[in-house]
């Protein structure tokens, strides 16, 4: 089986900081791949390079058999690669439904803020999309009135409105209250699996990784330090020490 996304030898340095120092990664069609690693390891840089927001200084990115290295974000989106950001990118003064209609209109090449509001077909599609995410009850609320978990879900719904085949998500659960987190991820995973979307997501919560990722890639100083099924990778003593130890201190440890 051929990979949907193939990164080969990706390199990018900011001054003396090697944010990508030879990244080789295959993302297989329909898999859910989690990226974990300490702050500053280069996880967001990988997403930025893959979606055209940063140009690698070396290496290639191939998507669905075509090289996309250094192409513009809009061109990459058009090919079927969408992303969500660490901070949601919703239009705060618009309702959730208007945001969804705007995203659908942008997929159709229309950027006017008014056109989507006038086209019943896009409003209808927006409501159907929100329904899949369980967001119909907040369809009429302004985006800036949503709690963080709902805002994150709405933001990802906007990316799904673009009908991607590959979706990259930067920390979809960051800032989400612990009690809400699993419900949000369950909804998200159900929608993406139903739509047969391949997903890459940066995640700091190891419970989420363990439960929802098919494979996990461990980033460390611009390189991939480990790659494999969560049960294997998360049990690796080096990963536990260098990644999980920092992010999830062992519960119940007594301190003098
Ligand atoms: N546009 C930029 N200009 C300068 N330095 C940058 C830029 N983007 C990233 N860096 C640096 O590159 C390194 C990798 O950053 P990146 O954001 O990719 O890490 P990360 O693993 O996503 O971290 P975090 O978990 O904190 O989001 C960091 O040292 C960061 O400061």
State the oligomer.
single chain
Radius of gyration: 19 Å
**Which structural class is indicated by helix and strand composition?**
alpha/beta
Span of the ends, CA to CA = 53 Å
Largest sheet: 6 strands, mixed
- Rounded mean pLDDT is 90
Tell the overall outline: globular
H/E series: EEEHEEHEHHHHEHEHEEHH
Number of helices: 10
Helix content: 25-40%
Q: Low-confidence parts, pLDDT < 50 over ≥5 residues? A: 248-256
Indicate the proportion of strand residues.
15-25%
Strand tally, please?
A: 10
Q: Give the neighbour order of strands across the main sheet.
A: 6-7-8-3-9-10
Ligands:
adenosine-5'-triphosphate
GO cellular component, one term: plasma membrane
Protein name: ABC transporter ATP-binding protein
InterPro entries: AAA+_ATPase (IPR003593), ABC_AA/LPS_Transport (IPR051120), ABC_transporter-like_ATP-bd (IPR003439), P-loop_NTPase (IPR027417)
Organism: Falsiroseomonas algicola
């Amino acid at each position: 089986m051929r990979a949907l996304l193939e990164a080969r030898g990706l390199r990018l340095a900011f001054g003396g900081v090697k944010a990508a120092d030879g990244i080789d990664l295959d993302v297989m069609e329909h898999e859910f791949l989690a990226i974990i690693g300490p702050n500053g390891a280069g996880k967001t840089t990988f997403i930025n390079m893959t979606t055209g927001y940063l140009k690698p200084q070396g290496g290639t990115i191939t998507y669905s058999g075509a090289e996309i290295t250094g192409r513009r974000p809009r061109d990459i989106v058009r090919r079927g690669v969408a992303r969500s950001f660490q901070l949601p990118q919703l239009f705060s003064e618009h309702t959730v439904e208007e945001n969804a209609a705007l995203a659908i209109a942008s997929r159709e090449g229309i950027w006017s803020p008014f056109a989507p509001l006038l086209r019943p077909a896009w409003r209808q599609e927006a409501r159907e999309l929100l329904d899949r995410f369980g967001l119909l009850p907040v369809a009429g609320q302004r985006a800036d009135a949503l709690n963080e978990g709902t805002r994150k879900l709405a933001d990802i719904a906007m990316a799904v409105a673009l009908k991607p085949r590959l979706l990259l998500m930067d920390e979809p659960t960051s800032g989400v209250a612990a009690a809400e987190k699993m419900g949000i991820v369950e909804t998200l995973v159900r929608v993406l699996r139903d739509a047969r979307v391949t997903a890459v997501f940066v995640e700091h919560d190891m419970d989420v990784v363990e439960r929802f990722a098919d494979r996990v890639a461990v980033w460390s100083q611009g390189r991939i330090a480990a790659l494999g099924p969560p049960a294997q990778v998360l049990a690796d003593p080096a990963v536990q020490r260098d990644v999980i130890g920092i992010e999830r201190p062992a519960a119940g440890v007594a301190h003098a």
